[in-house]
Amino acid sequence: xxxxxxxxxxxxxxxxxxxxxxxxxxxxxxxxxxxxxxxxxxxxxxxxxxxxxxxxxxxxxxxxxxxxxxxxxxxxxxxxxxxxxxxxxxxxxxxxxxxxxxxxxxxxxxxxxxxxxxxxxxxxxxxxxxxxxxxxxxxxxxxxxxxxxxxxxxxxxxxxxxxxxxxxxxxxxxxxxxxxxxxxxxxxxxxxxxxxxxxxxxxxxxxxxxxxxxxxxxxxxxxxxxxxxxxxxxxxxxxxxxxxxxxxxxxxxxxxxxxx
Length: 260
Ligand code: FES
Hints:
The chain is built from 9 helices and 7 strands; from the N terminus they run H-E-E-E-E-H-H-H-H-E-E-H-H-H-H-E. It is mostly helical. The strands form 3 sheets. It has a 3-stranded antiparallel β-sheet. Strand 1 and strand 2 form a beta hairpin. Helix 1 (25-47) packs across helix 4 (102-111), helix 5 runs antiparallel to helix 6 and helix 6 (174-191) packs antiparallel against helix 9. It starts with 24 loop residues before the first helix and ends with a strand. The relative contact order is 0.13. The site of FE2/S2 (inorganic) cluster (FES) has 8 residues, from helix 4 and helix 7.
């Protein structure tokens, strides 16, 4: 006698879904948010001006690596074609980290590819090959992109530190707060990454033998539970930080600060 239970046939429903709520609102909001960010950040990356208002450096342009960078904040002065702005040189690192993030994958698969657009809503595609083939197999680089993201979180933290340095004097300005918050949000997002959770203790079978790693895993897991929120707040804030510094650099607004 066979103990194998025969596979249950899939529900034979003509309708694409039976949901009565407004399930399309969330993918729509996400699509609008992503599009706005991509349009603005692409413009900012090519602009190559007004990305520095002493002592604030736009996070899009950090680290600043070309010969067009102000000497105070330049990490290098590579002589590259004008088209290659400092933002475009480093773009591959944050882009590969964000684009392969587990949360963002879910978000843009739903919002742009409708694959599927929401839970219990049929997708328009006839076939599904998952992430096992080209090009989506490249999503697996996420765990390596995380190491680069750690370096960038450190660099953005350094930018927040030098935002207290007003020509050699210690000061605090609105821009200082903007960059400190930016680095905090980036850390919250980076350390809450699923890969970070795996690295801290994901392969440990016996937590009691690794109390430190267990502790770290607990902290990372708490961030991970709000990963979507960290993903959005860090994304929006990095753009707002660029906007703020640009407005100060062009003289459109004044940066209120106090020097001690
Ligand atoms: S899963 Fe989102 S940053 Fe790693």
